[in-house]
Amino acid sequence: MAAEGYARTTGGIGVTVATSGPGATNLITGICGSFYDSVPMLCLTGQVSSIRSVGPTGVRQIGFQETPIVDICRPVTKYAVTLKHPEDIAIEIEKCLHFSTTGRTGPTLLDIPDNYQRAMD
After folding, report:
1. Partners of 17 in the beta sheet?
2. Which residue in 80, 117, 94 sits closest to 13, CA to CA?
3. Looking at CB atoms within 10 Å, which of 7, 24, 40, 95 has the fewest?
4. What is the distance between the alpha carbons of residues 80 and 41, in angstroms, rounded to a whole number?
């Protein structure tokens, strides 16, 4: 909600960072407010390592506190995606910023697996 408030008071874009699981779900109230009131916001969330993600296995969870935050937030964001390749982080951040600030503004979410957060060139 602080990122939403920042965007409202400055006229810029609010940015927030949260961990996976409950940390990411704590963003939902601010994301909803941002979506309904057209406030530009970029939300970056952590996710379990890509090698520990559920994927199409049919189980509830594999990684510790793995939460499908993109699926949960998709209806209340302009763009929400889990990073698939670490080399795509720059282009995905650019997409998020573009979608957040063009047309009817609003929130975007980029979910970044833990192992991609530590990837080197």
Report:
1. 44
2. 94
3. 95
4. 12
